[in-house]
Amino acid sequence: MAAGGGDPAASPLKTPSWAVRIRGADGEIAGAGILLTPDQVLTCAHVVDRAEERLTAEFVGAADHSVPAVPARVDGSAYVPETRDADGDPVGDVALLRLDRPRPAEETVRLHRLSAPGREVRMYGFPYAHNGGIWFRSTVVGGCGRDGQVQLSPVSPGELASPGCSGAGVADSRTGEVIGMVLSGQQDQHGNRFSFMSPAETIARHLPRLKPHIVGPTAVDERLLPTDDGAAQDLLDEPFAQRLAAWLRDDGSQVKISVVRSGDAARAATLRRAITLADRELRTAVSVDRASLDPPGTVPSAGGHDLAVDASGVSAAEIAERIAERMGLWQHPEDPPLDRIRASRATLNLVVVGVDEAVDPLPLLDLLEVLRAGGSRLLLVFREDGDCHRRARDRLLTRPERERRARLVERLRAITGPLARDLHERLAAVVPHGMRPLDSDLVAAHAALAGLQRTDDTDADDTEREGEDRVDGDREGEDREGEDRDDGGLEGGRPGSGRVPGPGLDLGRYERLADRVSRRLVKAVAELDRLRDRRDELAGRLRSYHVLHQHALRGEEDPAVDGLYLRAHTLLRARPCDVRAAEAAVDAYTRRVDGHGAADDHGEGDAR
Q1: Which alpha helices (H) appear in 168-315, and where do they start and end?
Q2: CA distance 184 to 161
Q3: CA of 355: how far to CAs of 253, 319, 377, 401, 485, in Å?
Q4: Which partner from 4, 40, 226, 430 sits 20 to 30 angstroms from 480, CA to CA?
Q5: How far apart (Å, rounded) are the C-alpha atoms in residues 114 and 178?
C-alpha cells in the first residue's frame, strides 16, 4: 500500500481505486477525479459546472469490479476557476466535489509532496476512445508559468493527455505516490505536445482545507519561514533580490554561493522573501501582491526551488535524509541516504542556508558535491566568508568550472584537429554536392579555443591579485566584496573574490557552439563517406562491365564505347571526385555495353 493510502499506482495492470470518472448532467464524460476522502473528490474546475446540481462520480477501480455511480456536487466554496495572471499564464483550475454517499476509506489516496524534476509519471484518464480508463505515461519537464504548474512531456505522441483526462491523478512511477492532478494537454503550432499538472503544493495553496490530506514534508524548513516582524518585511536588498530571483528562474548557473551575515537584517529578509515566493505552497496571493510592489526583476516564479533547508546545528546525514525523502528515495532505507542520492538519477533545486553553521560542514560539502555532480542546482548561503566558504567556492565553483573549461578545450581541440582533418580529407576525395559550407563553423571553433586558452594567464594573475586584496583586509568594502562573491556564482563566471576560471566567459555559449559545430562536422563527414563509398561502388561496377565488354569484343575495338569508358574512368579517378557526374558517366557506359550485348545476341540469332 502506498504511503499516502489507497492502492499504489506502481502497477499498470491494475485500475487505481482512487481514480474517478466524472459525468455531467448530460451523461457525457466530463473528466476525471481523485478520491481523497470517502466523500470528497478532487478535480479540475473546468470539468464541472459550479451551478450544476447533477454530477455523477463513477468508481471504475472498485474492489468488487462493479462501477458504482454516486451523485456529487461542488463542495461549497472549494472551487477555484482558471484565470489568467498579468502575464497571461493560467492560474487555479481546481475544485472539490462532495459525494452523496461515502466510499470505503481504503479506496482513498492522499496527495504527496515530492520533488519532481525529470521524474517519470503516469496518469489514469478517460478519453473518448478509452472511456473505461487508460494509463498515460509522461516525463516531468519542469515548472511553467507563475502558478507553480508543471509541464509534462508524453513518452509517446499518443499519450498526450486528451479530453477526459482533466482532473486525473498523476502518480510517480517510482514510488506510486499521487503527486498532482492533470490540468490539460495541448499541441502547439510547431507540433510539440505537452500536458500540464498542478502539483500537491499548488493544490494546497488554492484549497488550504486539503492540507490534512497531503503528506510528505513541506519544501521549506520552518526556521526559514518569514517572521511576523513588519519592519523586517519592509527590508529589501534590491540587487541581492534580483540575483536570487534570476537564479530561482534558472539563469543557467548551476551553483550560486552567497554570504548573508548574522547582523544583516536586509539581506536575511530578502532571502526569506525569495524562498517564500519561490515555494508553490507558501506563495499566496497576499505575498505575491505585496512583492509586486517591489522593484522589477525581484519576484521569482513559484517552483523555483524544490527544497530549502536551514543547516544551522544540523548534521550532514540529517540533511541528506531530508533530501532523499524529498526526492522519493525510499527504496533500500537500510542504505545511507548519501548512497541512495548518489545512486539515483533524480535531481532537485536545493537551497541550503547556514552551510558553515552545520554540525559538520565538511561532510556537508561532500554531500553538496555529490548533488552538483549529479546535476542538481544549488543555492548555498554562508554566514561568514571564512574557511568553509572558501572551500565551498573551490570545490563547487572554481574547480568544477576549471574542469568544465578543460573538457571544453579538449572538445574544441578535437573539433579543430582530428575532426577537421577528417573533413578536409573527405573534401579532398569527393565533391560535397548540396552540403552547407563549414568554413565559418571551423573559424568560430578556432576563435573559441583561442579565447579559452587566452584566459589561462589572466586567471593566474587575477588569483594572485585577489589573494593580495584579502591580505590587505579592506574592511570598509566588506559588504561590497560579499556581493561580488555572490556574482561569481550567479553571473556565469564573472569576476569576484575567489574568481572562477574565465572571467566574463559564457561557457554555456561555448559549449553550445562546440555541440553545433561537432554535430555539423560529424554529419558532413558521414555524408562524404557515403559519397566515397558510392564512388568506390561505381569504380567496381565500371571495372566489371569493362571486363565483360572486353571479353565480348574478343580483341576488336569499339571507339564509341571506349570513349564512354574513358570518360567515366577519368571522372572516378579525379580528386575531388564529382560523384554525380561520375555516376552519370558510368550509367551511360553500362547502358551502352548492355545495348551492345543485346545487339550482338540479336545478330547471332539472325545468322543462325
Answers
A1: 200-206, 230-233, 238-248, 265-277, 285-291
A2: 6
A3: 19, 11, 15, 21, 16
A4: 226
A5: 9
Say if residue 127's pLDDT is above 90: no
Beta bridge partners of 198: 181
DSSP symbols for 308-328: EEE-TT--HHHHHHHHHHHHT
Q: What would the grid cell of residue 42 be?
A: 478532487
Q: Hey, what long-range contacts does 134-138 have (CB within 8 A, 24 or more apart)?
A: 135/12, 136/160, 136/161, 136/165, 136/168, 136/195, 137/173, 138/170, 138/195
Q: pTM value?
A: 0.76
Long-range own/partner contacts, residues 64-71 (CB < 8 A, 24 or more apart): 67/21, 68/103, 70/99, 70/100, 70/101, 70/103, 71/99, 71/100, 71/101
266 vs 233, 263, 304, 356, CA distance in Å?
9, 9, 21, 20
**Residue 527 confidence (pLDDT) above 50:** yes
C-alpha cell at 94: 481546481
Predicted confidence (pLDDT) per residue in 453-467, tens digit: 887 655 544 433 333
Per-residue pLDDT band for 163 (boundaries 50, 70, 90) equals confident
CB 192 within 8 A of CB 78: no
Gyration radius of the chain over CA positions: 33
195 vs 159, higher pLDDT = 195
Place of cell 541512495: 340
Q: Is 173 helix (H, G, I), strand (E, B) or coil?
A: coil
Q: At what angle do helices 559-573 and 579-607 cross, to 10 degrees?
A: 160
Dihedral angle computed from the Cα positions of residues 77, 82, 84 and 89, in that order, rounded to the nearest 10 degrees = 130
Read off the pLDDT of residues 287-296 as tens digits, 9 standing for 90 and up: 666 666 678 8
Element (H, E) at 573: helix 559-573
pLDDT band at 283 (very low <50, low <70, confident <90, very high): confident
Half-sphere exposure of 391 (CA within 13 A, CB side): 13
Asked whether the predicted pLDDT for residue 271 surpasses 90, the reply is: yes
Q: What is the pLDDT of residue 507?
A: 86
- DSSP label at residue 197: E
